[in-house]
Amino acid sequence: MSQLVIVGAGFAGIATAYHLSRRGVKDILLLEREEGPGVFASGRNAGLLRQSSDDEPTAGLLLPGARAARFLLRGIPGAIQGSGSLIMGANIDRLRAGPRAKFLDASERVPGLVGRALFDPDDAMIDPAALLSVYEEGARRRGVQFGYGEPVTGVATRDGKVVSVQTPRREIEAHGLVCAAGAWAGRVASLAGSDGIEIHPKRRHLFRGGLDGADAQDWPFVWNDENSVYFRPEGGGMLLSPCDVEAHPADDPVFDPSQAERLAEKLISTFGDLGEWRVGPGWPCLRTFTGDNRFLIGWDPKVGGLFWVAALGGHGVTSSWAVGQQAAEVFLGRRPAGPFDPARFG
């Protein structure tokens, strides 16, 4: 039996499986080399629903994606904290944000924080695992099969079109291959003979920490785009990032302890008026980009049956619903790929 094989159980792959199954596509098999969903970028991020972007096509997916995530998580205890966001920096006037976003003095939302900010009350902090679970459960109800712990080791083509996928366990007859493997998407696509699209994994660190004396649990998350640093309340402390963007091989990312010092310096220079910051343990994750920083959603320009849903560049949590929806519509020929078409690199 020929199947549609999706590779990657992060937000891109699971959301695509979810939306294809909702549109009646049968015989979908989702393969993931890890033993569960969202092990890397989709499960190691800060869980920020941030709708604003200075790129209009990207914002066009962030807005409906965030709206859907809020709806899907509304009945799950602890899955969403809707305190909004404060985005700061010199370029905030260029951002396209949610319909209720407004400019204000940051101290109106965070006492002691100095500067002009874009406040979006519809941004939120969520549990990424909860959103992944919603997609997975919905896909399973509609017959999608999952092969965890099953990496793709080969892709066979005939007359320039995908015909089968190999794993260490089996060979799978396939009438299509959806490449949604995050940082590993380039490797998977190359197995099918695709070589014209470059994607770039980049490392980012997150740290646990705190702000001495602050009652911050009702604060929004605060992101200074100009100085590349953000914090969000979490439990009794904070989740912090220096927003590092370093090229890294497609592999389990290596922790760089120097990023803790870099983060401390950024917190002091950017948010020092709020008090004394503490930086605790941290971990790295990989985000994946194209050369123009736009997503890949559409058919490979060279290999028949190879469909890309990749390079979400850290927007997977917010955009996943809309990315999966667009991927399904493009896959079924119901809409053009538009600015996310992989053929722009062809």
Short description:
The protein has helices at 11-22, 56-73, 128-141, 185-191, 258-271, 316-331, and strands at residues 3-7, 28-32, 48-49, 80-81, 85-88, 102-105, 116-120, 124-126, 145-148, 154-158, 161-166, 171-179, 200-211, 221-224, 229-234, 237-241, 246-247, 277-289, 296-299, 306-310.
Helical run tally: 6
The CATH architecture of the largest domain would be: 3-Layer(bba) Sandwich
Oligomer: single chain
CATH superfamily assignment of the largest domain?
FAD/NAD(P)-binding domain
% residues in beta strands:
25-35%
**Fraction in helix:** 10-25%
Highest-level CATH class of the largest domain: Alpha Beta
Number of structural units classed as domains: 2
Rg over alpha carbons: 20 Å
Assign the CATH topology of the largest domain. FAD/NAD(P)-binding domain
Query: Can you tell me the residue ranges where pLDDT is under 50 for at least 5 consecutive residues?
Result: none
User: What is the N-to-C succession of helices and strands?
Assistant: EHEEHEEEEEHEEEEHEEEEEHEEEH
Tell me what you see in this structure.
The two termini are 32 Å apart. A hairpin with a 2-residue loop joins β10 and β11 (161-166). The chain is built from six helices and 20 strands. It folds into two domains: 1-47 and 127-199 and 291-346, 3-Layer(bba) Sandwich (FAD/NAD(P)-binding domain), CATH 3.50.50.60; 81-122 and 201-289, D-Amino Acid Oxidase, subunit A, domain 2 (D-Amino Acid Oxidase, Chain A, domain 2), CATH 3.30.9. With 346 residues, it is of the alpha+beta class. Strands 5, 6, 7, 13, 14, 15, 16, 17 and 18 form a nine-stranded mixed sheet that branches.
